[in-house]
Amino acid sequence: MSSEPISQCNTGDAQCCNSDSSASNPSAAALLGLLGIVVQGVDVLVGITCSPIIAIGVGGGANCAQQPVCCTNTSFNGVVNIGCTPISL
User: Fold this and answer.
1) What are the residues facing 21 on neighbouring strands?
2) Which candidate among 24, 65, 73, 80 keeps its CA 20 to 30 Å from the CA of 35?
3) What is the DSSP letter of 29?
């Protein structure tokens, strides 16, 4: 999956995740199941153990040592984020 620049993250919040995976991946599916999250009919990219990326003002930049992603659904307190797209910082 190709990545988009962080400036193009207009579909959701920029997040830094420890990992990302397809929702159909057995470990991701198990985590989604434990949290009671149902993702049916769509194999979306999910971010696992995420925190927001805060772009620093003039002269600075965003920092993420793991997998930077842009996610449309971040309502699960960073444990898992749904509808993610890899981004470049």
Assistant:
1) 46
2) 65
3) H
Domain interval for residue 49: 4-88
Query: What are the tens digits of pLDDT across the range 35-46?
Result: 888 877 677 899
End-to-end C-alpha distance for the chain, whole angstroms: 16
Rounded-to-integer distance, Cα 9 and Cα 61, Å:
15
Which helix (H) or strand (E) segment holds residue 11: the answer is none
Kindly report whether the global pTM for this prediction surpasses the value 0.85.
no
Calculate the dihedral angle through the C-alpha atoms of 35, 22, 2, 60, rounding to the nearest 10 degrees. Answer: 30
Determine the Cα angle at 27 with ends 74 and 44, to 5°.
45
What total number of domains does the chain contain?
1
